[in-house]
Structure formats: C-alpha cells, structure tokens
Amino acid sequence: MRDVAVIGIGCTKFGEHWNRSFRDLFVEAGSLALEDAKMSGEKIDAMYVGNMSAGRFVEQEHIGALIADYAGMASRHIPSTRVEAACASGGLAFRQAVIAVASGMEDIVVAAGVEKMTDVAPGASTDALTGAADREWEGFVGATFPGLYAMIAQDYMHKYGMTREQLAHVAVKNHYNGARNPIAQFPSEITLDTVLKSTMVADPLRLFDCSPITDGAAAVIVAPLERAKEFTDTPIKVLATAQASDSIALHDRRDISTLDASVAAGQRAFKMAKLTQKDINMVEVHDCFSIAEICAIEDLGFCKKGTAGKFTADGETALGGKIPVNTSGGLKSCGHPVGATGIKQVCEIVQQLRGEAGKRQVDNAKVGMTHNVGGTGATVAVHILGRV
Amino acid sequence: MTVARFWRKIPQRYNLIGTKCTTCGRHFFPPRTFCPDCRRNGKIVDHKFAGLGTVVTYTVIMTEPDQFASPGPYVLAIIKLDEGPQMTSQVICDPKEAKIGMRVKSVFRKIATDGESGIIHYGTKFVPVE
Ligand SMILES: CC(C)(COP(=O)(O)OP(=O)(O)OC[C@H]1O[C@@H](n2cnc3c(N)ncnc32)[C@H](O)[C@@H]1OP(=O)(O)O)[C@@H](O)C(=O)NCCC(=O)NCCS
Ligand SMILES: [Zn+2]
After folding, report:
1. How far apart are the C-alpha atoms of A164 and A259, rounded to whole Å?
2. What's the rounded Cα separation, in Å, for the pair A73 and A67?
3. Which residues are CB-neighbours of B116 under 8 A, at least 6 positions away?
4. Strand bridging mode B52-61 / B44-48
5. What angle do CA A344, A65, A350 make, to 5 degrees?
C-alpha cells in the first residue's frame, strides 16, 4: 500500500443557508479545496461523496453524478461515487478515497460531504434522521434520534453517577471552541445555565445537548504522499484509517452506553498507526449529543469508563487540557450537516496540524484523530493524521 | 409506513410473536430469520413471547415526529423481555413514575396515524405491573 496525504481542504460556513442550494454548497467546498491545493480540476481522477439523505431532504438521488457534473467533471467522465452510512457518510467517503489512492488505483481523489437539511419542516427532518436507526423496530414505535441518545445518557448516568452539570460542560466547552471557528453555525459562548435552562427535548437531554439541523459541505483532496509536494508545502499524512460496524438498533447492543464499534475502530486505528492515546494532540469526536462525546472519549481510550464527566468538568478536554476534544466546536456548536461532518472533522485536524487554526490552535500539534459515528453507533470511522 | 409494509408484520407487532433458534435456544424479538450465533446451523421457529419484561433504560420524548399518536410527552424505553431479548417500545405511565428496573407487561395500543385522515397503526406498548 502507498502512503496517502491530504493536500487540500475546503469547507463552507455551516448554518441555515436558505438562499443557497444543495449544489451551490458542494461546489463552494470543492472550489475551496482545489484553491487550497493550488490545483485545477483537470487533475482529479475520482470523487467520493458522503451524503445521508438528499432523497428525503431535497428529493434528489444520484448524488455522485450530480456533484461531478456541477464540479465541471461531466466531460471528463471521472468515476464519482456516493457513500452512505447515515451521519458517518463523510468519514466513510474519506476512507474510500484513502483506500483508492493507497491501492494505486487512483492518484488524485476528492472526498466530499454535503447535506442540505433546512429545506424541510422540523418534523420531517427529525423523521428523516430516524432512518439512521432501525425504522421498523425503533422509529416505528416512537423513537427519535434525541430519544435514543437520551436512553444512552439515562443508562450512563444510572451506572456511573455522572451529574447533569458534568454533562453540560461538554456543550459549554464546545461552544467556547466554536466561538473561535469562523465556519461555526452557533459561534456563541454559553454558560452551564444556558444548557440547564434550555428546553427539554428528550429527558435528560435539553436543546443545548443536541447538535442542530444544518446545511453545509466540506471537501478534501488526497494524493500519494510521494506526489504531495507538487501541490503543497504542508502535506498531512494519513497514518491510519479504520471502520467498524455493530447492530443497527440500540436495544441489540452488548452495553447500551458503550459504542463497541468505536472501541473496535479506535483499536484498529491505533494499531495501524503504531501509536497510543498519548501520541494524539487533539481529537474531533462525534458529539451529535453531549452524551455521545462522553462515550466517545472513553471508548477511544482517552479516559476510563465512567470518568469522562469529571474529566470534562475538570477541563481536561478543553483547549490547553490533557487532550483537547472538538476544537472546531464539534457538531454541537459548529453544526452537523450529517453527510459533511466526517469531512469537516478531517478539515479541522488538517488545519490544526498545519498550525492554521487561529484562536483555537493547539500548541505544537503533530498528530490528530477523527471519530465519526453513524446512527447510534452502528457504523464508526476513525482516522489518524500526522505532520510529515 | 405503507399498508403492505405494515400488514406484513402484523402478527409480530400485535401479538409479540418473535422467533427462537432451536439449535442454541436464543430468542429473538424483533424477529430474526437467521441466528447470528449458529448461522447456517441455526433452526428458526416462531415464538410467542409472554409479554413480561424490565425497563433497561428510558427517556421522556418532548418533541416527536408528527405522526405519533401520543399527545404530548411520552415514555420511550428499552425493555428486556423475560425470555432474553431487548426491544424498544413506549411505556404508558406518568413520565415521573418511569424508572430503570421497573417491571412492565405488554398491551395492544394505537401507535401512529399517517396524516390527519390516514391509516391508524396499532402495535405493542407496555404498562407498569405492580
Ligand atoms: C434539538 C432539536 C430537536 C431542536 O429543534 P427545534 O425544537 O425544531 O428547534 P428550532 O429549530 O425551533 O430552534 C429553536 C431555537 O433554538 C436554536 N437552536 C436550534 N437548535 C439548536 C441547537 N442544537 N443548539 C443551540 N441552539 C439551537 C434555533 O436557532 C432557534 O433559535 P431562535 O428561536 O433564536 O431562532 C433539533 O435541532 C434536532 O433534532 N437536533 C438533533 C439533530 C440530529 O438528530 N442529528 C443527527 C444526530 S446523529
Ligand atoms: Zn442459534
């Protein structure tokens, strides 16, 4: 296998883009990535696009071809493939691009992610997202996404005694980081009170425990490491790519508040990179709900099971802490256009490793990790990236 | 959910009929036609569940998708059936009374309506037992 590097990144602002369409968004992200790699589109050999549910959100399928077309590739007939794994679609698109280059099949490959979620009414978006869980045996009986994660939170708090305040620290920390990220959807600092007094969505999760409904797109360009210097002075090497699956329904898991797929993907990634948790300078985890970040940092091995609440409240996951988590603001503050999230996580880590993260820069960042979850943990993608 | 899609699973949804693997004895609800433990050596038969179980975890849903029958907040839970498998369902009780470890039994209830004059779907919910 060949070594693979990220040579360009691009991301739209995340938020409600009522005046811009699905295709406007991914064209912008793609152009930004090409500009960043100082490259023209003629060099692109293939594309992989993460998208969860354009069929439900904008009534458009066949996204691979649509994106290649509007990115100006129709006359070059390059292969363009949509990748779907609910909220992990972006992470899987990135992994497919890395595999294509590592195998030697392709040289310059775009991995993109896009979702346009705000063109439908709130009830309809909630229902579309439920398709990431088991429609027949969870969705049909009244489960919603916030509801499923709320059941994880309830189980976790019952077993380990984490307090409601400790859980709220996740959101406060992520909003602090998001306030320092120009692309964030909700770039405002908040207090514990903001979280604890916000509307109850699914007990014990409140509005400020939830990632929002978001429009946005992100793109990265990968190439063989040996060619990376043609395009950039700061290539970022892909040290590991890992993916794991688990039961589609939460009720079939071995343990409700451990995502075994996160554990498996994390272990595989560390093994592939020949690194341990101590080598990671910052990690972007999938905080679709505050409890998901708590589980993630434990399942990836950054702290012991049952201790992430205190670890977070003590500031260990904040900028300047032991392991800064979600310097981008995470899904909570930066926003969560589901198919784009996994690619945005890679963009954030690349910015950190290049030293371009501005007010949220982690000092001397050498190695970073991304963790992208589909559904309640039925798919997980983990990547480790490092400075060359 | 379309009519065909719903009707296909009526015995399971109305009467808590799942399956059982006679090779290893493991019970499945929701039903499976392939045993993940025995794989092709498994032999799957229908099994009617007694309908008794324990709440493993729960939540109170405040913002629901449009089609659900329950007006206002409802209790959603993962229930471990006495025969072994776990399933997701609603528990009909005062949200304040819901707790982990609570014993429940199955009942037949309305689940959802497709639009204002659409089809009404029925299925299994649970109520507390003393
Ligand atoms: C939490 C949720 C139910 C809120 O939806 P809602 O009740 O329709 O909220 P609204 O869109 O009416 O927003 C109410 C207000 O809160 C703000 N807001 C919405 N979501 C927010 C969030 N997550 N954090 C902070 N503020 C938020 C809105 O901007 C709005 O502010 P305004 O009144 O000043 O305009 C919805 O965002 C949601 O379903 N999130 C989860 C998404 C999800 O499941 N993703 C997949 C996970 S894997
Ligand atoms: Zn068996």
Report:
1. 21
2. 9
3. none
4. unpaired
5. 20
| Chain B residues close to A199, C-beta within 8 Å | 62
Contact B78 A250 (CB under 8 A): yes
Compute the half-sphere exposure of residue A40: CA atoms within 13 Å on the CB side of its CA.
Answer: 1
Give the chain B residue nearest A257 (alpha carbons). B57
At B9, the pLDDT band (50, 70, 90 cuts) reads confident
What distance in Å separates the CA atoms of residue A242 and residue A264, rounded to the nearest whole number?
Answer: 9
Of the partner residues A143, A150, A204, the one whose CB lies closest to the CB of residue B88: A143
Residue type, A278: K
Stronger pLDDT, B111 or B64, i.e. the higher one: B111
Contact assignment for A256 to B121 by CB distance below 8 Å: no
For B77-109, write each residue's pLDDT tens digit.
999 999 999 999 999 999 999 999 999 999 999
Instruction: Compute the distance from residue A291 Cα to the ligand 2 centre, in Å.
Output: 34
| pTM of the predicted protein model | 0.97
Quote the tokens at residue B19: 């399956």
Q: Round to whole Å and give the CA distance between A326 and A352.
A: 11
- ipTM over cut 0.90: yes
Q: How far is CA A148 from CA A41, A253, B57, B87, in A?
A: 42, 12, 10, 12
First to last CA, chain B: 35
Residues in chain A: 388
Asked if B65 and A256 come within 8 Å (Cβ–Cβ), the reply is: no
Ligand 1 proximity of A288 Cβ (cutoff 6 Å): yes
